Amino acid sequence: MIDQSLMSDMLSPFWVSIKLACVTTLCLLLFATPIAYWLAKPNRIKAIGRLKVLLMGIIAMPLVLPPTVIGFYLLLLLSPSVGIGKWLSEHNISPLIFTFEGLVIGSIIYSLPFYIQPVYAQFLRIPQSVTEVAHLLEPSRMRRFMKVALPQARVGIILGSLVSFAHTIGEFGVVLMIGGSISGETKVVSIAIYEQVEALNYEAAHMMSGILIIMGVVMVALIASVSRISQRP
């Protein structure tokens, strides 16, 4: 049997992981959706088109780089001696490394391509006729985005949100590098499982892994259902 203290130690990382996934997904919804819309808009200016290609390449870097590499450079960037961390330190603002806020920044960067790609693809699928009619009926770009583009891309937005949420739940390398393992603050479930295995506490590791597998199956089923809807003509 697993005692209550160990059960509490097991539940806390799940709560941190779910909270991190929710905050990360919400941030991506608010900030990455307009970016995906801008990237998907056709452009006649070659310089802007090349800029978009470059930005797409930068966004896709987490797909090819090891998580520890991204986590390492984020650790340097957020540390008090250089980059953003130095600026925060000079202005008497608490550093972001080994904090939940730092985890959110790392998760947003690492999950960005997993959200951008399906949303970008869905914006590309908006018929040209719909865009032309929207230009005629609605002069405001913001209203066209809110009333026309977002409803047309809702399937991609849902799919991107589900993929990003599931991806954040399973993060390990990035969150370990910039968050460490502070109980109740930065210790996510993947780190907790690693620590249980290191301590040879396989019973707890099995239980936590089993819960993650169940969550993963549910998320995969949801993603597959939404993906099937997105492929309908």
UniProtKB/TrEMBL annotation:
It is a multi-pass membrane protein. Pfam families: BPD_transp_1. Keywords: Cell inner membrane, Cell membrane, Membrane, Molybdenum, Transmembrane, Transmembrane helix, Transport. The keyword Cell inner membrane applies. Gene3D superfamilies: MetI-like. The keyword Cell membrane applies. Residues 14-224 form the ABC transmembrane type-1 domain. The chain crosses the membrane at residues 14-39, 51-76, 96-116, 153-178, 204-226. It comes from the Bacteria. It is found in: Cell inner membrane; Cell membrane. Belongs to the binding-protein-dependent transport system permease family. CysTW subfamily. Part of the binding-protein-dependent transport system for molybdenum; probably responsible for the translocation of the substrate across the membrane. This is Molybdenum transport system permease. It comes from Psychrobacter proteolyticus.
